Structure formats: C-alpha cells, structure tokens
Automatic annotation (TrEMBL):
PANTHER family: S-ADENOSYL-L-METHIONINE-DEPENDENT METHYLTRANSFERASES SUPERFAMILY PROTEIN (PTHR31760). It comes from Sphingopyxis lindanitolerans. This is Ribosomal RNA small subunit methyltransferase G. Belongs to the methyltransferase superfamily. RNA methyltransferase RsmG family. Its EC number is 2.1.1.170. The gene is rsmG. It is found in: Cytoplasm.
Amino acid sequence: MMVLASEEQARDWIGDAFAPAVRQWGQLERFAAMLVEENDRQNLIAASTIPSLWVRHIADSAQLLCLDRASDGLWVDLGSGPGLPGLVIAILSERPLLLVESRKRRCDFLRAVTDTLDLRYVEVAEAPLERIETRPAATISARAFAPLDRLIALSTRFSTESTRWLLPKGRNAVKELALLPQPWQRMFHVEQSRTDATSRILVGEGRIGAEQRGKR
Ligand SMILES: C[S@@+](CC[C@H](N)C(=O)[O-])C[C@H]1O[C@@H](n2cnc3c(N)ncnc32)[C@H](O)[C@@H]1O
C-alpha cells in the first residue's frame, strides 16, 4: 500500500476513494479551517501537524471508512476530541454518528462545527464514556483515546455480534494487542495505516463478552 506523502496526495486519495460531492469537499475544507483556527484557543492537534493536516488528520480519519463494512447503523466515536475521526467520517459517509467527549470546550467546538456544516445526523455526547447510556453500535472507533484493554473494558457494552471496531493504534498496535486475553485477540486483525508506514489499525469484529475477560 502506498503511504500518502503529501497534502496533494491526501486530497487526491480522498477524491478517488470517496468521490465527495462539491458540498462534502466544502464541508471538509471548512472543518479543516475551523480546526486550525480553534487550535489557537485550545490544544486540539499538535501545531507541528498543521502543515500536513490533510495527511495527518483528514485522510488519517477517512481511511477508517475503507475498513468498515457497508452499513448505515450508528457509528460511535470515543474520545472524539475535535472530531477526529468522527467528523471526517460524518462528512464523507453521512451516517448517524455519536461523538463521545468529556471536555466541555471540545464539545463546544464539536457543536460549532456540526451547526456550521449542518450535520444534523451527528450527536455530541458531552460526558465521560462511563456515564453515556448504552446504545448498540454498528461501528466503534477510537483514536488516541485509551490503552486498548481499558478502551475495550469501557466500551464493550456498546458492541453487538456484528459491531466493527476500528482502532488506530500507531506503532504500538501489535504490542497492545498481544497484551489482551486470547479470546479478545482473536477478534482483531491488523491493517497498515495509509498515512504512516509505522502505524497500524486494529480492526475487530463482534461482541467482547464479560465472560471472556481474564481467559488467557
Ligand atoms: C488524545 S485525545 C484524542 C482526540 C481525538 N480522537 C484525536 O485523535 O485527535 C483523547 C480525547 O479523549 C477524551 N476523553 C478521555 N477520557 C474520556 C472519557 N472517559 N470519556 C469521554 N472522553 C474522554 C479527552 O477529553 C480527549 O479529548
């Protein structure tokens, strides 16, 4: 797989992979601009990544859609921060999205973007994940949210037999996976990231039952 090496390549890849409508391109551009602007007020993304925003954040988020199965069910993004990957997925897929984020200022930003872009099918849940009412998720994503075992422990109640788990885990993906109990490990496979040769994405399938916890 070719790793995206420039902003131009990232935009070209998004165009080829998702054929966004003019409106969706406009929404992506506006979201990118709002992200950069808001980053002066609160620390949302590392300033060093702004020159490569489309590779590091937009395409990095969008690639998860290629790993999902075609579905129109609820997509839950955990620890969404400024909407990565959640808002990029929302713009490109137009699926119902639940963005879970505990910090008020980040949620204010998420609401400002969803209002500005008129993303009516996106819901912002401003609370710790532990306090969110359980809902069955077709897809669960989490980027830079929590260590894998904690992430699963906190979110397994949202999963069903057919839930797709999409977990970008950087260069420690394989190591983190190996630390899980065996029955959990078997539910995941590892995919190469399109945006970083050393990063991996854990892709899982199904419900991680409490009965499997602790079995190694
Ligand atoms: C490192 S940031 C990553 C944000 C975003 N996913 C990204 O990749 O840029 C982790 C986010 O998770 C949120 N968070 C941490 N623990 C949480 C919890 N228990 N419930 C909801 N959000 C949480 C933090 O407020 C923060 O915005």
